[in-house]
Amino acid sequence: MAEQYDLIVLGSGPGGYVAAIRAAQLGLKTAIVERELLGGICLNWGCIPTKALLRSAEVFNHMKHAKAYGLAADNIRADIEAVVARSRGVAKQLNQGVTHLMKKNKITVHMGTGVLKAPGTLEVTSDKGVETLSAKHIIVATGARARDLPFAKADGNRVWTYRHAMTPKEQPSKLLVIGSGAIGIEFASFYNDMGTEVTVVEMMDRVVPVEDADVSAFLEKALVKQGMTILTGAGVESLDVNASGVKAKIKGKDGKVVESQFSHVIVAVGIVPNTENIGLETLGVKAERGIIQIDGHGRTNVTRPATKA
What we know:
The chain has helices spanning 14-25, 40-45, 47-64, 80-104, 162-166, 182-193, 213-225, 280-283, and strands at residues 3-10, 30-34, 108-111, 113-118, 121-126, 129-140, 144-146, 159-160, 174-178, 197-202, 229-232, 235-242, 245-251, 257-262, 264-267, 271-273, 287-288, 291-292. It has 309 residues and is of the alpha/beta class. The chain folds into 2 domains: 3-142 and 279-292, FAD/NAD(P)-binding domain; 146-271, FAD/NAD(P)-binding domain (3-Layer(bba) Sandwich). Strand 4 (113-118) and strand 5 form a beta hairpin. Helix 3 runs antiparallel to helix 4 and helix 3 runs parallel beside helix 6. The longest helix has 25 residues, at 80-104.
């Protein structure tokens, strides 16, 4: 017999857990299904822990320039392991906060991988086995993950996504960041402040291309002043990865291809939706390039059949 709810939320990121809390506050019997960590990417692997990293880098940068403030600070050095540990601690504390909110609002948490089996039916697979849940409504809030480049598959050693960059095995000596969106620039700034030589490659004609042109110009000027190399209108043609580093062929805006050596590469070329293998195709839910199509009320084209009173 499937466990019955008024609402099931698939995914516990900022969209999912907030929706679950509000539903519970409105009197709905609510469950949330999460395959990894409550709080989702933003809280555990994105916005929050990156800001903790950036704060440590900012303090370190201020300490290196203590003399300008009339202060003496000698033998300043960064402990990358301790910096990462602080960032992970911040994320863990907030994860525990979301766990508390689930209990406080009497939301049932099912840890495992959820797959839609029919309108109103969800199957959850975990190390404890398989369980079937049923609800009048299901919210899909599965978030997204880093996009791979065909020629630059992340391996966690030399080629990183944001996750690898957040918990590095070692500090890069010379870092190539492919992409200058928010994620790319955050990590470029962090590692630059920590003492890494950083090069950013952006295929568009300016950094953070989705922002205003004035913002892009100001930011690029500031990053260059901090010591970064910024290549706009450029693209990475290929990567040759080996045990000692990465050899990259970079085509500049002048059309010339230059080969450079780096210790590590961060691929930050956007994100893709986590909507495959969750049962959308089986149910006939319309999606375009992985993005679920919805109406003005957030509803998909598939609805649960009305039940008889």
